[in-house]
Amino acid sequence: MTADATIGDDYIRRFWSHVEKSDGCWNWTASVASHGYGNAWDGVTVLTAHKLSWRIHFGAVPDGSVIMHTCDNPKCVRPDHLLIGTHVDNMRDMARKGRRRGCRYRRLTTEERLRIRELRARGVSQKEIAKELGRDVKTIWIACRAR
Fold first, then answer.
1. Strand ranges inside 3-115, DSSP E
2. CA–CA separation, 105 vs 133, rounded Å?
3. Nearest Cα residue to 37 out of 70, 72, 81, 83
4. What are the sequence ranges of the domains in the chain?
5. Closest-CA residue to 14 (of 43, 45, 54, 57)
6. Which of 54, 91, 140, 143 is 20 to 30 Å from 130 at the Cα level?
7. Which of these, 2, 52, 60, lies nearest to 28 by C-alpha position?
8. Dist CA 122 CA 125 (whole Å)
9. What is d(CA 87, CA 84) in angstroms, rounded to the nearest whole number?
10. What CATH fold (topology level) applies to the domain 9-96?
11. Where are the beta strands (DSSP E) in 19-145?
């Protein structure tokens, strides 16, 4: 039986048929969304494969909680690579591990704004500036319009 009794045995068998196990991560091999996380079906709704793995092994995810990866591999469903936390915990983990680079929600620093102005004055494209700064092109576009 599973830790979450709402998930039927047929769905669990189907879940495991889409998992490739190794000594490291256990990767989801079925549908993957554009953000890199696996899409899984629990019999009621589509959710991320790692969240379904958590439910199978540990039970329901409490409201306000997220399932995080210790391995930073969005396709991984290995239960000992998953941990529960809050959105704030997840953002701190991202920042601590340096995975926020290119995140459009991080504010530009004063140095970045000055560099953008300098490069635009020299005729460098927004796409090239975004690549140099490791930022989203939309972030650069917004900064250029904010003058």
1. 19-20, 27-28, 39-41, 46-48, 66-69, 82-85
2. 14
3. 72
4. 9-96, 110-145
5. 43
6. 91
7. 52
8. 9
9. 10
10. Homing Intron 3 (I-Ppo) Encoded Endonuclease; Chain A (3.90.75)
11. 19-20, 27-28, 39-41, 46-48, 66-69, 82-85
What is the number of other CB atoms lying within 10 angstroms of the CB of residue 67? 19
pLDDT digits (tens, 9 = 90+) for 97-126: 766 554 445 677 888 889 998 999 999 999
* Residues 52, 40: Cα–Cα separation, whole Å: 7
Which positions ≥6 away from 88 have C-beta within 8 Å? none
Q: Determine the Cα–Cα distance for residues 102 and 131; give it in Å rounded to an integer.
A: 9
CA distance 39 to 49: 5
For the segment 11-47, what is each residue's pLDDT rounded down to a tens digit? 889 999 999 999 999 999 999 887 889 998 877 888 8
Distance CA 100, CA 109 (A): 14
Q: Report yes or no on whether pTM surpasses 0.90.
A: no
